[in-house]
Amino acid sequence: MVKPSETFKKVPPYLFAGIDKKKAAAIARGIDIINLGVGDPDSPTYKRIVDVMHKAIDDPKNHDYPPYEGTKAFREAVAIWYKNRFNVDLDANKEVVSLIGSKEGIAHILFAYLNPGDIVLVPSPGYPVYKMGTILAGGVPYYVPLLEKNGFLPDLDAIPADVASKAKILFINYPNNPTAAVADIAFYKKAVDFAKKYDILLASDLAYSEMTYDGYKAPSVLEVEGAKNVAIEFHSLSKSFNMTGWRIGMAVGNAEAIENLSTIKTNVDSGIFKAIQIAGIEALTKPVPEIEETNALYIARRDVLTKGLNELGWNLTPIKATFYVWAPVPPSTNSNDFVAKMLDECGIVVVPGNGYGPEGEGYFRIALTATVDRLKEALKRMKDAGIRFS
Ligand SMILES: *Cc1c(COP(=O)(O)O)cnc(C)c1O
What we know:
The chain is of the alpha/beta class and 390 residues long. The chain has a seven-stranded mixed β-sheet, with helices on both faces. A three-stranded antiparallel β-sheet has the order 9-12-11. Strands 1-10 form a two-stranded parallel sheet. It starts with 5 loop residues before the first helix and ends in a 6-residue tail after the last helix. It has helices spanning 6-9, 15-28, 47-58, 72-86, 102-113, 128-136, 161-166, 185-198, 237-240, 255-268, 274-285, 290-311, 335-346, 372-384; strands spanning 34-35, 96-99, 119-124, 140-145, 167-172, 201-205, 231-236, 249-253, 324-328, 348-349, 351-352, 363-367. It contains 14 helices and twelve strands. 47% of the residues are buried. Helix 4 (72-86) packs parallel to helix 11, helix 5 (102-113) packs parallel to helix 6 (128-136) and helix 5 crosses helix 10 (255-268). Pyridoxal-5'-phosphate is lined by residues 39, 101-103, 127, 173, 177, 205, 207, 236, 238-239, 244, 249.
């Protein structure tokens, strides 16, 4: 058989592909699995959005190829949403492009900017696509540690100047997957200054902006004055509107970066089904009070899980955003062994922290994607199995 490329050999199966296999094997053994693994909302897409999609499917006008960059109406809806939500002005023609989910855009932007060997500053722990997208595009990821003592924000001053000078892109992601950390405008301002100083494209991943709790509201990097000179921001309807399966997102910000990303995309994809874009417009331009209800659900789960884990010896503070709890594994073990023990002895799927980068070792991630009752059951199983943080 033909041999795959050297680049391909550096690409492992996606983190969750491996986890899904182990989960399937456990289910085949008859185990009642509690899945707290992949970050996929367990609530349906809001009915109003689904209803709009139903109608749009029947209209033959929506059956042909969509515009590559997104319909004008969708791009305008994105601009309206950014104005309403962040008070950020966007030119729908130049500063917005639709994405087939933001994962796609995050992977493709790298192809527009990397020469072989170029450095990309990648948070560790971080969403795996930043690193693997970099490798696929021929670049070299340089890990920027996110440490608990720094509130899981990168210490940009600690990045060696010679590395920063060679870097093309810096990824940041707040509210953060997997740590649930949040960033304020002061941090975004620092990141913009850093990107200006070293001539770096600042790539902000804002996937979790609407999953916030206890009155916290997540800002956009584009709220920083002058950010549009250096920054592109990725957003997605996946988490904000329970639309993971629909595959719709957007990139906004620096016009040149948007144009370059669009050029890559016109060569590899042909846009998003127009009916899905019409559903996206519904989500972005009308008030969506259902978001508050969904967030209330996550708050209830968070409170049960945080309290339960703290009763088992952990010392966790309730998260302000995302639907992840990022917790240290007991000191006598490591990420892989602990996660295997959780599956084998409790039938609970959680994600090993080291899947998100070297600084994730010693942690595991729990997604709040099960009901309060199931979370209580998970905690009971842990207690019965003698699993404690000690
Ligand atoms: C879920 C997620 C995304 C969004 O993925 P889509 O492709 O839009 O579904 C992007 N970034 C992070 C960090 C995520 O966790």
